[in-house]
TrEMBL record:
<feature type="transmembrane region" description="Helical">
    <location>
        <begin position="100"/>
        <end position="122"/>
    </location>
</feature>
<keyword id="KW-0472">Membrane</keyword>
<keyword id="KW-0812">Transmembrane</keyword>
<keyword id="KW-1133">Transmembrane helix</keyword>
<dbReference type="InterPro" id="IPR001387">
    <property type="entry name" value="Cro/C1-type_HTH"/>
</dbReference>
<feature type="domain" description="HTH cro/C1-type">
    <location>
        <begin position="8"/>
        <end position="68"/>
    </location>
</feature>
<dbReference type="InterPro" id="IPR013783">
    <property type="entry name" value="Ig-like_fold"/>
</dbReference>
<dbReference type="Pfam" id="PF13413">
    <property type="entry name" value="HTH_25"/>
</dbReference>
<dbReference type="InterPro" id="IPR050400">
    <property type="entry name" value="Bact_Cytoskel_RodZ"/>
</dbReference>
<dbReference type="InterPro" id="IPR010982">
    <property type="entry name" value="Lambda_DNA-bd_dom_sf"/>
</dbReference>
<protein>
    <submittedName>
        <fullName>XRE family transcriptional regulator</fullName>
    </submittedName>
</protein>
<dbReference type="GO" id="GO:0003677">
    <property type="term" value="F:DNA binding"/>
</dbReference>
Length: 206
């Protein structure tokens, strides 16, 4: 079966018209007429415009416009199988063997553990003092209570050391002289990281 281009070319040649003459008569750019006659649909504008070109040319060349449009629809929408190139999607992700998966997961867990330990080493221990309050007026001996890290030691005024219980809670008593005193409390963990607090208090009697 002939194509649209072959039929239009034959009709033009039958009337002894050049492409330029037919372009002048139809007001269609000669490059589009040449593309149509060569069945080069990729060089043409949209499908709607191309159908308009075909009807215009058919009228000038006394051809059956409906038949040519039908042939155009068939050829335009049917891919040229001789020029079809199949592209296979290639995966660039490495394939992981099921035997290696446990080692990979174990390695990730180990890395997370190292990061956690490194953070523990760099982070100073927490230190919260519940008693006494800052600027409190007290009677000696003074009870000191608070929370810290479970692996830390609490030192009060550089001479009293307290070991917290399994939850990090600690309580101790210390004798202080009468007058205004500054309690110096620090918590030192096993990596030597220190948290330090000062509490001014007033001792009125022993």
């Amino acid at each position: 079966m002939k194509t649209v281009g072959q039929i239009i070319r034959a009709g033009r040649q039958k009337r002894n018209l050049s492409v330029e003459q037919l372009s002048h008569l139809t007001k269609i750019d000669s490059k589009y007429i040449t593309a149509l006659e060569s069945d080069q649909y990729t060089s043409l504008p949209s499908e709607t415009f191309t159908k308009g070109f075909i009807r215009n040319l058919s009228q000038r060349l006394s051809l059956d416009a409906d038949e040519l449009v039908a042939i155009f629809r068939r050829d335009f929408r049917q891919p040229d199988r001789t020029h079809t190139v199949k592209f296979h999607r290639r995966s660039y992700l490495p394939k992981v063997s099921s035997q290696l998966l446990p080692f990979i997961i174990g390695g990730l867990v180990f890395v997370v553990y190292l990061i956690f330990q490194f953070r523990v080493i760099l982070t100073p221990p927490k230190l919260e003092i519940y008693r006494p309050f800052s600027a409190a007026v007290l009677v000696s001996p003074v009870e000191i209570e608070g929370d810290t890290a479970i692996d830390a030691s609490v030192i009060v005024n550089e001479d009293t050391q307290v070991k917290p219980d399994a939850s990090g809670h600690f309580v101790t008593k210390i004798n202080l002289p009468v007058g205004e005193v500054v309690l110096e409390i620090k918590s030192v963990n096993r990596f030597g990281r220190t948290t330090f607090k000062k509490l001014p208090v007033t001792i009125i009697s022993k």
